Every structure is written in C-alpha cells, then in structure tokens.
Amino acid sequence: MQREHLRKGTWLQEEDEQLTSFVARLGERRWDSLAKVSGLGRSGKSCRLRWMNYLRPNLKHGPFNVEEEQLIVQLQKQLGNKWAKIAKRLPGRTDNEIKNYWRTHLRKKAQVQQGGDFKHKLESGTQDLNQQSIDMVSKDYSTGKVSCQDSEWETKDSSMDTLPLSDWELRRSPYETRILDWIAELKKGYCGKELEQDCNSTGKCNHNPQEFEEGSDSWDYSGSLWDMN
DNA sequence: AAATCGGTCAACCGCGACTTT
DNA sequence: GAAAGTCGCGGTTGACCGATT
Fold this sequence. Notes:
sequence-specific DNA binding; transcription regulation; DNA-binding; Homeodomain-like_sf; mainly alpha; disordered C terminus; repeat; SANT/Myb
C-alpha cells in the first residue's frame, strides 16, 4: 500500500488561506476528504486542529483577562481537565488554548497561592462573578444564541446548515470526485477571470478566502457543486 | 557575546467514542 | 452486528524566544 507523504509542522499563511476557503465551502466536517481534495498535503486531523484552534472566526487569541482566568480555575475545579467542556463556557477560546494556559500559568499559580489570597478570592469573593459568567455563557449556549462577538460565527455556522444535509450523505467517491470536478471547473471559470494569475497548476489559488465568502455568487458555486444530476 | 535555561504555545499523537458501510 | 472510517479529546512534544548566567 502506498503511503502518501503528509506535511507536518507549522502552517504557512498560504495553507491557512487555502484551508479557510475550503472550509467556507465544504463546512466543518469530513476533514479527511477535505484535506485530500484541498491538496494541502496535510492530514484531516491536522486541518481540523488548525481550523478549530486558529482559523475559526471569532477566536480571541489575545491574553486571558481576569474574569476568564478565574472562570477557568473555577471550572477546572468543578470539571477537572475537561478542557473541551470548559472551552464551551468561554466564547472565543479553544480547549487547546485553555489547556496550555492552565498548564503554564494557572496550575502553578493555584499551587503557589494555595491557601492564600488567590484561593480565598476564588472560593468567596469572586464566587458571584464566576457564577454570573457561568450562568450568562451557559444560557447563551443552551439557547443557541451566542452573545456579541459570537453572533457572526453563529451566522456563518448556521449558513453551513443551508447546505442540504443529504449532500453530506454523499460518500467518498462521488463526493470527492465531484469536488475535484468542481476544482477543475473553478480553475477554468472563476480563476479564468481575475484570478488566473493566482492559480497554479495544482489547483492552488493564492486567493483571499473572504472573496469566496463575500462574493455574490459564492453559494451558487456550492449549488452546482452539490448538484449530482 | 555565547551558552544555557525556562516559559510559552502551536501542533502532533494515541485512544476512545461515534458514525457509516 | 462487525468492520472501517471519522471525529473529538486530553496528554505530550518540540520549536521558538526572552531572560539569565
């Protein structure tokens, strides 16, 4: 069996852009297939991780504020190392980010200050604040309505739902074949105009993914893509 | 100035759970 | 119902960078 060589290590901006454009079109699922058809030479797992931890819209990336910090400590105490669950309570933060932050900052801090001010604050003075945050965020998630900066993501997310579910039931061969057809079509048509110079022979387009999302005929392409007739 | 150390964080790995065939 | 494929999670690694010696 032939083992294909998969790229590892740090992602290049070019790869990020390519991944973003494919996720915008195909949605956040079937990562293995997406990885294959994108021509990135990465594993599906790697693509998913990059998207979830770095490229996904509305991720915060900046330093954690005091509230977030306290919430993490509080939730870690309640839930243990269930970083994915904790991350769901902190909009814009990823499980990986929280896990790293816990390991490098909070764990030590909690140990050092065990029995001291920090612990005392967590257990008493800031309890209300923490509970407020938990309640607020939980409520938002449970109703499916995410406040402020997450609303944009919710819109994008739900826009993926506009893809007929049945299309996703198409499996590997026809699915991938269709996507490859689409790529060829895209190269001929879309790239044939203003993007011609940005597309190379491998089908890679060095193109701002925003143009896919915001372009007026963006989903028209997906329409033709999923139309198997 | 160079070497070493320690902190940070992006990315990888292994595994279990879930889904699809 | 079994096997294969896929996803998601948590732990770990390694590259990078600033601080210290």
